[in-house]
Design brief:
Blueprint (H helix, E strand, L loop, with lengths): L2 H10 L4 H4 L23 H20 L2 E9 L9 E8 L5 E6 L3 H4 L2 H15 L8 E6 L5 H12 L5 E9 L2 E9 L4 H8 L8 E8 L15 H21 L3 E8 L8 E8 L1 H12 L17 H4 L4 H9 L3 H8 L1 H15 L10 E7 H4 L3 H4 L2 E9 H21 L23 H12 L6 H7 L1
Parallel strand pairs: 3-4, 4-5
Antiparallel strand pairs: 1-2, 2-3, 5-6, 7-9, 7-10, 8-9, 8-11
Helix pairs in contact: 3-7, 8-13, 9-12
């Protein structure tokens, strides 16, 4: 039985599509308010797992309403080489188009996302303002290759694309026995993807400062007015929009140095997760190094051949002679540098031809927090999280409020002080709560870490 035969069978039986789907009972989500101790089990991988289950369950339910309108559709412009969508359709009650890619074997499934993305790119050229929710990607594949499983998870986590995978099965090579079983990642799959991400040293900081401006800064002995704070928060909002548009996962905020200090008082701080540092850490974890010992390995000690071993096929020597991974790690800050300067230059533009002295510099978030002049002797204003960090901050906050509603403050691991606002709207942009969240994110067991290390 060939892929073409499976494709033909699905198309010819498109009116009975829902009969091909195996009914699936999704795993239970983790609950963090089941008892007074449950909140201590809250970790990023479990929250991400819950989020994946919710979104996959929603997509699974909606795909029963898939109505196919295309089979082996050539998506091409004049003069272009032909690419084909195996199947296309719409989902009742959903906006946009469903693209279905069929791969029968593990040998061919590695090509699946390349082809799906090519189809999606062409559809974007036809419908130029497509949003992420306007294309649902459906993969029918054995899901045996780790790279395919991880690509599916990455699409959900980092691109927030609607992706769903079915595993095809049949009996005695008879296409008429075809059934589609939903593929659902395990928590172990999530841990493999996420455990190398959340480290303070992987968050790069770039800070731009600029000179005092009339009506922007408080006088000596005074605090910034509400108007001054609101203006600085508007700068943060714009920078966060740029970060979201560029796919940077991190956070951003502004600050003003105490008026008594002889420094450029205004500052924009942009923080983003360096993807190349994550790749290095992910490699080390796969090699057996504890996530808590990753700091012991320098950024220049890993060659990109270890990250992408396939490079050795035709480019082993050039990669052995050069430190391309280290170059990628060190130059990634150009991404957040550009965001910071674009924001400050735009927001200080004026109709009076005024220019303002600027300063700048970068380091890791771990280093930045140890610099009192940078991080403590100043007014830190509202913070905006972006990408996956935004999503996790919201999810952590939602779970905390559920717990507090049921059990109160006394036994909460980090909010036992009870000093939190009634409404989440007043919580999400506040520096103190966000930094507390980061500490829990970087090390969910930070409050008992010493005890755990002694035990080890």
């Amino acid at each position: 039985m060939t892929e073409h035969e499976i494709q033909k069978y699905i198309w010819e039986n498109k009116d009975e599509w829902e009969d091909l789907i195996i009914e699936y009972e999704f795993p239970e989500e983790y609950r963090f308010n089941e008892n007074e101790e449950s909140i201590y089990s809250l970790t990023p991988d479990k929250l991400i797992y819950n989020e994946l289950l919710k979104r996959l369950k929603k997509t699974y339910d909606s795909l029963y309403g898939l109505r196919l309108f295309g089979c082996e559709v050539p998506l091409k412009k004049d003069g272009d080489s032909t690419i084909r969508a195996d199947l296309m359709g719409v989902i009742e009650g959903n906006s946009g188009i469903a693209l279905i890619e069929l791969k029968k074997s593990a040998q061919t499934e590695r090509q699946a996302y390349t082809e799906l993305l090519a189809y999606a790119s062409h559809l974007h050229s036809i419908f130029p303002t497509f949003s992420k929710d306007d294309i649902t990607f459906v993969l029918i594949s054995p899901m045996e290759e780790r790279i395919v499983r991880e690509a599916t998870i990455f699409s959900f986590l980092f691109d927030e694309k609607p992706v769903f995978a079915y595993i095809p099965t049949w009996t005695d090579n008879d296409v008429k026995t075809l059934k589609l079983t939903p593929w659902i990642p395990t928590e172990e799959d999530i841990i493999h993807v996420t455990q190398s991400i959340f480290s303070q040293k992987n968050f790069e900081i770039f800070k731009v400062t600029w000179d005092k401006i009339d009506d922007w800064n408080a006088e000596k002995g005074e605090n910034p007015s509400e108007y001054m704070i609101e203006r600085m928060n508007s700068i943060t909002s714009y920078a966060a929009q740029l970060m979201e548009s560029k796919g940077v996962h991190g956070f951003v905020y502004t600050s003003q140095a105490y008026p008594e200090l002889p420094f450029l008082p205004n500052a924009l701080i942009v923080a983003g997760i360096n993807p190349f540092k994550i790749a290095k850490d992910n490699y080390l974890i796969k090699e057996g190094l504890s996530p808590y010992k990753l700091d012991s390995v320098s950024d220049d000690s890993i060659n990109i051949l270890q990250i992408i071993p396939e490079l050795a096929n035709k480019a082993k020597k050039v990669n052995e002679e050069n430190c391309y991974l280290y170059d990628l790690i060190t130059t990634w800050t150009n991404t957040i540098t550009g965001i910071a300067f674009e924001t400050v230059n735009l927001m200080t533009s004026n109709d009076d031809n005024q220019n303002f002295e600027k300063g700048w510099g970068g380091m890791t978030w771990e280093q930045y927090q140890t610099k009192m002049l940078e991080d403590a002797l100043c007014f830190n204003f509202n913070v905006r999280a972006t990408g996956l960090i935004r999503k996790l901050f919201v999810d952590y906050t939602r779970e905390d409020y559920k717990y507090l509603t049921k059990y109160g403050y006394e036994n909460h691991p980090s909010l036992s002080h009870g000093d939190i606002p009634t409404f989440i709207v007043d919580y999400l942009n506040e520096q103190h709560y966000f930094r507390n969240f980061l500490q829990r994110l970087f090390d969910p067991y930070h409050e008992i870490r010493d005890d755990l290390e002694d035990y080890e």
